[in-house]
Amino acid sequence: ENIFDRSRMAPKTPIKNEPVDLSKQKGCTPETNPITPVKIIDRPQPDPWTPTANLKILVSAASPDMRDREKKKELFRPIENSEQSDTPDSLQYDIVDDSTVDEFEKQRPSRKQKSLGLLCQKFLARYPNYPLSTEKTTISLDEVASILGVERRRIYDIVNVLESLHLVSRVAKNQYCWHGRHNLSQTLKMLQEAGELQYGDLMTSQPKEQDLEYKFGERKKETVPDSLDRPLLEFSEPDCISASANSRKDKSLRIMSQKFVMLFLVSKTKIVTLDIAAKILIEETQDTVDHSKFKTKVRRLYDIANVLTSLGLIKKVHVTEERGRKPAFKWIGPVEFPEKTDELRGHSPTSDPLPETQRGACAQYQTSATGKQRFTRHSSFNSAQPCEATRRKVSSEPNSPHQERQDENCSKMINLAAVCRQKIEEDTGSAKNSDINLPFSLLPVPGDSDFCVNPLPQAVFPVVQTDVPSFSLPVGISSQASHPSTPAASKTENGKPTLVPNQPFLCFPSSSLFMLCGGLQENNLSKPLPTAGDLANRCPEAQAAVPPTVCQKRSSHKCSSPSAPVDDEEPAAKKQTLEHSDLPLSLVVSKKPSESPKAESSPGRGCSAAVHLETNHLDLASPAATEVANKEPTKPLDCQEQEKRSQNKDPDEPSPGNEHISKDNANQPFQPQYLYVQPTAGLSSFNFLFSANQAPGAVSLAANQLPSLSVPCVMVPSTALASFPLVCSPPFTSPLSPVPDGSFSAAASTNFSMSSLASATPVFISTTAVVTPKVSPAPSVDPQQPAHPALHLSPVLTRSCSAVKLDSPVCMGHPVTLLKLQQASSAPLTPKSIRPAHHEAFFKTPGSLGDPVAWKKNEGNQTRNASSVQRRLEISSTSPD
DNA sequence: CACTCCCGCCAATTA
DNA sequence: TAATTGGCGGGAGTG
């Protein structure tokens, strides 16, 4: 601390600048340090002020290796840091900028500055949310501690929590492996499931947490106690089997963290008060609850909460109960994945996705995106696991061979998705945690897909048909789609895309394609949609309340995908509803959350994908959908999702351009259509593509004119994509027949719209976005190529697309680019796709600039702190603005 | 005063 | 035995 003082005095100014000082400090530090044993001395002080710079110096001195690492890290930081955004506004650009921060903080290291939350942010800033699979980042505790200028003990606190969520795994002594959030959704899902088993009764049964508390008190012991640790462990480390030795570790922060998260996931309100959590946790551990224990537990919970807050998974709120006001935390992370998917899933059995695979896939994809290697590393994650295994135990590996295959195929998609997510998240994340963070998760998607699958396939097509006469195939497609419903089978089958030659539709391998939704706003509206009605009923409020325009705007902005769903009459309503719900969501737990009632799955998704699905269901569903819809879960989900979306979106945001578009769209018959393809079961990680329905609008192309087709989104399962080429036939005259690869489906879809429109261009754009897919090998069917696979689809498309879109895609290298592209497309259509926006973004092609704007707005509004990357994207994409 | 939660002692584990 | 992990709770900072 003494050191700090000095640093304060003099160094307060940005530290970085002056290495010299640092060096000096070093010398000093040892002396000063004497107090603490060895380690402490070196690093402690310097850090505080200019954590990074000083630390680095110190570190470098300490070991060359560290230096190198640090350098590397630094390089990354700017890009990766998006996370930071959440917290410190200033930080956004560079974490590195400690200097900036320092200025504020320099003055004195107040306690806040030393907070675990802040420390965690710094920590997280050093690593990408969605690291490319290729490189594993290893984390050296000593190094990090020195860099961050804290004692190791603190790093343990952070790492333990992160580990509980599988964001990192311990490889060896002092060595941790950074995984990022690729598996987060999966992990959360697991936790949710586990939580339901353990706490479900309590949480669910009780309307309010308060009640829960009471109940907990009663039940705690019963339900929780024994199982707690074990299950948790398992959850936490699905991969790894339960920890071998439970000893102390079991009860530690790691477990507590998981349990704590479980409580959120199980809670309807998504709000958990500290005292309740403490009680529950204590119970688990022990029956006797000493006051002291309680206090200790609460302390730990604060520690955990700080880390989770830094991750953007929860935020602090106050719950006012009868008793009084209590400190509590609200879950603002994704919620959907787990639950209900099962129901839907029935079909897609498999999907158990292996986190690993997903990861690998993602990584692969990314690489591919980069344009380089593709699949080079599936294993990366796997390897990671081993690490964990070493540490703890190895787990059984669920993975089956097929999964791997899928992985490959899917991986592409997944990667895209992952990339998109990252981008999105980054973008949004900074601004807003809640929605942003995990919008898509590979996992969730699958689940969604599942839902969708049943109803969707058929429904979708029909819808399309309704909307666009041109689509002759829809039916056929739908049939195909239905097949896919069974994931496993499909895979084997895959490869064969069903093509409908002239059809506007895309054909996916049965397995691959789940849903296609077309939303026609107006037109569709007219349609009788049983499902929609149902949906609407469910969320009647929303429907009524939400002004269409608004929704559209949002949708356009945010995500095409969501919007797309909206397109359909119902969807819009839903969206609206969602919005409403979302908006209302307030700290107060009870109220809104309740709405989402069960949204079991819904919430989380965050993923646009999920949304899509839902929407799709609704829309598509009309026929089948209704049935599906009937399923309670689905509905709620939809609602929730919508809500989420809505949340994400700000109604206000309206990007001018987008708005226009959206309006136009609204006016126009556009129908956003989504195509959702689900990967085979194996995919658990899914891929989805969205085509932006928005595209039409977004594109500005004449999209407005073109209203006829807009295929908002296409989601394709990775597998589908990869293995099967999707075929899109040009709906209309324009024959797009060419089929984009699965990956492209989105593109293809867009194309349709485009084609129909005549202004193929926009569509193409989307395609371009798709381009990334090319990464994937697509076995395909399509002639398309790697280079511009999607483009090939239609001649027209090819031209425009290839030329234009592709180029834009150039950006591809980074996910960011992709996003932008997507964004562009999105704008117009969907009324609200709040969340979806993300998705949209993905899908959106550069061409549709308008959308990007929307995005920007959305994100920008939402997140002030868009990460640098985000900004970049936005900027580039947003040019329109 | 209550809420947070930093800090670091010191025990359990591990190398 | 030394080092690493990490439980734990005193007590300080904040409002």
What would the average pLDDT be, to the nearest integer? 42
Spatial order of the strands forming the largest sheet: 1-3-2
Largest sheet composition? 3 strands, antiparallel
Q: Helix coverage percent of residues?
A: 55-70%
Work out the helix count: 46
Percent of residues in beta strands: 5-15%
Gyration radius, in Å: 25 Å
The dominant shape is: globular
* SSE-based structural type: mainly alpha
How far apart lie the N and C ends? 49 Å
Number of strand segments: 11
Q: Which ranges are low-confidence, i.e. pLDDT below 50, for 5 or more consecutive residues? A: 1-106, 203-246, 338-881
GO molecular function, one term: RNA polymerase II cis-regulatory region sequence-specific DNA binding
Region (Disordered): 1-49, 62-92, 340-410, 546-608, 626-666, 845-881
Family: Belongs to the E2F/DP family.
Domain E2F/DP family winged-helix DNA-binding: 111-180, 248-333
Explain what this protein looks like in three dimensions.
It contains 46 helices and eleven strands. It is mostly helical and 881 residues long. It has a domain at 116-203 and 248-331. The two termini are 49 Å apart. The protein binds a DNA duplex (15 and 15 nucleotides) through helix 10, helix 13 and helix 16. It is found in: Nucleus. Residues 111-180, 248-333 form the E2F/DP family winged-helix DNA-binding domain. Residues 81-90, 364-385, 860-881 have a biased composition (Polar residues). One of its GO terms (molecular function) is RNA polymerase II cis-regulatory region sequence-specific DNA binding.
